[in-house]
Write a structure and sequence with these properties.
The complex is a heterodimer of chains A (265) and B (269). With 265 residues, chain A is of the alpha/beta class. Helix content of chain A is 42%, strand content 13%. In chain A, α4 links the parallel β3 and β4 (96-98). In chain A, α7 packs parallel to α8 (172-183). The longest helix of chain A is centred in the C-terminal third of the chain and has 16 residues, at 241-256. Chain B is α/β, with parallel strands linked by helices. Chain B is built from twelve helices and eight strands. In chain B, β5, α7 (162-171) and β6 (177-179) form a beta-alpha-beta unit. Chain B is globular and about 50 Å long. The chains are: A alpha/beta (265), B alpha/beta (269).
Chain lengths: 265, 269
């Protein structure tokens, strides 16, 4: 079984990207052997009121409850964010929180953000922190000029020791180097994907050695990026069967409480 | 997993030439043999037949002696893995006389098959003309570091983008020039559009960027005839992009072992 931690539906405003609907994403997942995916709304990044994007997402994936694990994108600097969070988790059955401080123009260390991240822990909800959506060197002139900074993540991880974090699509080895010092004393867990780690360099081995196979998950950034490079990494990972099962699905099954292999939302 | 096992047949069953890779110094001026051997082992595992390697100096304006040392390291890699590693000579066009002599040395004495330029000058800078003309005379291709960077542009003030290549293409239609790593992190749409009509400008598909549509748009703008397989250190990305791209199988095969470049591989070790 393969579970993808990082997929989107919606419209990317800065270039034409295909397969942006839930129906299309399901087909892409099927073609790549992905059984389930955590999914969020690109539109929720760009709408002033992110909650409209979350609403759209739930409407779109309604037919695929067995395949998608919906993540709520909340902007803690925009009015009504507490209610939005409660609605997403309590009423709409969303399973995780996803944050984009570099698009919504706040810091993870701002008081509202810290409160939101702590609220996630209180609800046993993991917080997904994508370090970026696209490579910043090719940014559209209206796109963000920032990625998630290591220092900011380090600080929010320290301020919110009970929260589970998933860090993806960025310099995760460097992040892990900073975060793992504090990892042992935290109650919350920290997971990393390997979307930006080359399997044939020493970095992947270093990541596994640093955080353990228990903390590494699969993330593709579909449909923004090809899925195949991440599948190639799995193919050549050199992990043993037990480790591979954890990375492919076991770790996320445990995180989301998917005892039977399908989402129960 | 099985999805990839089957799809690796694309590599296993066809000629694969990686036109953009590097070997490195061990920090003491010698070839990093361990890294070099690992690269060749990886190539073997992933069914790459040839690795075209260079060793550019990526900062400042390197002196001719330092350029020579880089090329000597590449030559050592070629000798260590004959038939697999082919060499491109790194050249700093700013030292014109020495640059031309170094091309001669690398081509005639060391058996290299092309020239690698980095970001010391735009490729359209007049100072590069002598090098381009030399490569035309010798009938060898130029691989130029490239990118249209929309972030932190001051980091590489003289990096060439598609418009610089287009200018050279019109000035030297007989030159064979590769705009490096279309997936190298810059605005690849800009790069492709700028060189679309330049028949003698090619690109390699290397780089860490795996944007959906990258390979499809490369083929749409340039045609598979003008695209070359490459990895530039991002091997899983390079392989994955080719596997994931929704282009005809014949186009993939063409990119992996572009027959237009076969003649260059016949030279050297």
């Amino acid at each position: 079984m393969l579970i993808d931690i990082n997929t989107y539906v919606g419209h990317w405003p800065f270039r034409k990207v295909g397969n942006g609907t839930a129906d299309e994403l399901i087909k892409v997942m099927d073609d790549s052997g992905i059984d389930m995916a955590a999914v969020s709304s690109i539109n929720a990044i760009f709408y002033k009121d992110s909650q409209q994007g979350n609403d759209e997402l739930i409407g779109q994936i309604d037919r695929y409850k067995e395949r998608f694990i919906p993540f709520a994108i909340i902007n803690p600097s925009y009015t009504g964010w507490k209610k939005d969070f409660e609605d997403c988790i309590g009423k709409m059955g969303m399973k995780g929180l996803e944050l984009y401080p570099y698009y919504h123009q706040y810091r993870l260390t701002d008081s509202n953000a810290v409160e939101l991240v702590r609220m996630a822990a209180e609800r046993s909800i993991a917080v997904h922190l994508p370090c970026s959506v696209v490579n910043i060197r090719q940014r559209h002139w209206l796109d963000t000029t920032e990625n998630l900074s290591v220092q900011e993540v380090e600080e929010v991880v320290r301020l919110c020791p009970d929260t589970d974090f998933i860090i993806t699509n960025g310099p995760v080895l460097r992040m892990a180097g900073c975060l793992e010092k504090a990892a042992g004393s935290r109650k919350g867990r920290i997971y990393y994907d390997f979307a930006r780690v080359d399997i044939f360099s020493t970095d992947f081995t270093a990541l596994i050695e640093s955080v353990g196979a228990d903390r590494v998950v699969f993330g593709s950034v579909a449909p923004m990026q090809y899925i195949a490079p991440q599948l190639v990494k799995l193919h050549y990972s050199g992990l043993n069967d037990i480790e591979q099962e954890k990375v492919m699905s076991g770790n996320l099954k445990q995180l989301f409480g998917l005892c039977c292999g399908r989402s129960s939302h | 997993m099985d999805v990839i096992y089957d799809k690796m047949k694309l590599f296993k069953e066809h000629k694969v030439v990686n036109w953009h890779e590097h070997v490195w110094s061990d920090g003491k001026g010698e070839l990093d043999e361990r890294d070099c051997d690992r690269l060749v082992e990886t190539a073997c595992k992933t069914y790459m037949d040839k690795l075209v390697c260079s060793l550019p100096i990526t900062r400042k304006n390197p002196r001719p002696d330092d350029v020579k040392k880089c090329n000597d390291i590449v030559a050592r890699a070629m000798k260590r893995h004959p038939g697999v590693i082919k060499g491109f000579a790194f050249i700093n066009p700013g030292y014109v006389k020495e640059a031309l002599a170094e091309i001669d040395r690398c081509f005639n004495d060391l058996g290299m098959i092309g020239v690698k330029l980095y970001n010391q000058y735009f490729i359209s800078d007049p100072v590069v003309r002598s090098v381009i003309e030399k490569c035309i005379d010798l009938g060898i291709p130029i691989l130029e570091h490239a990118g249209k960077t929309n972030f932190n542009q001051q980091e590489q003030p003289f990096i060439s983008d598609g418009t610089h290549f287009a200018k050279v293409a019109h000035e030297y239609p007989e030159a064979v020039i590769i705009e490096a790593h279309i997936g190298g992190g810059g605005d690849w749409q800009w790069s492709l559009k700028a060189i679309a009509d330049c028949a003698n400008i090619y690109t390699d598909v290397s780089g860490s960027v795996c944007d959906e549509g990258l390979i499809e748009e490369t083929v749409r703008y340039l045609g598979a005839d003008r695209a070359l397989f490459g990895t530039d250190g991002s091997i899983s990305a390079g392989i994955g992009k080719m596997i994931g791209a929704k282009i005809p199988e014949q186009d993939k095969i063409k990119i992996l072992g572009n027959p237009r470049f076969d003649k260059y591989l016949e030279r050297g070790l």
